[in-house]
Here is the input.
Amino acid sequence: MVTIEYEQSLVETTVFLAVRNDDRLECELHQVVDHLYEIPDEEIRQREFVPVFREFFTKLGFDRLIAGLLAERPLVGELVDRCVVREAPRKKAQSAELLVQGNKGGEDRVGRTLVFQICPQSFLDTGRLIELMRRDLLHVTDMLDEQFGYVRETFSGDPSQQNLQRDRYRVLWDIHVEGRLKRERREINGKEERLRHALARVFQVDTENGISRFFQHVLDAKSLTHRQLMDWARGSLDVRFVA
Here is the structure.
């Protein structure tokens, strides 16, 4: 399993938020850290904070969240070199993203870093956080899966056409992810219907008169490829699904 590296500021803020609603834990934390503020050298002081907050972070069980998600997708742990958990600037920026570094110095392999961006307060609402990260992590799994065949590509046409194709691809991929999570019994109530309406919008098809069969085909597919999603995104809705 890949080692998970947590940004220290994220760890500290998360711990402070968690203990403020528990008088016993808050008192325990302050008993340990208050005297550290008396250390005059800032560098030494910050270094002394690290193990204290890491211990509380672990005691509160927050370290198990990301580890548990990675355990669900063993391919990620096998093919990713580093996993970094950073503080997100805002809730809408929360994500799990794969960063790939090209070959350097004649090496034969690429370097892959999985970056989670999470707001400290989200650790206190683990159910919703797991739902979000679970989806992003399945996208990352697809990007690593040779059978899916993900490659970075540009979309054709003028800017408006490119945006439309990009939106179509995103919605189709999201539906494919949702279908697999549904079969794993990890879906979100109401998400399927929102995706159905999103598909109708990007393909400009009335929901009642044509989109349902196509939506169900993508949702039920056990495996799709990047190429299939790109072909659908670049073309029109396949007539066999709207007949």
Notes: The chain has eleven helices and four strands. The longest strand covers residues 111-118. Residues 32 and 109 are 45 Å apart (CA to CA).
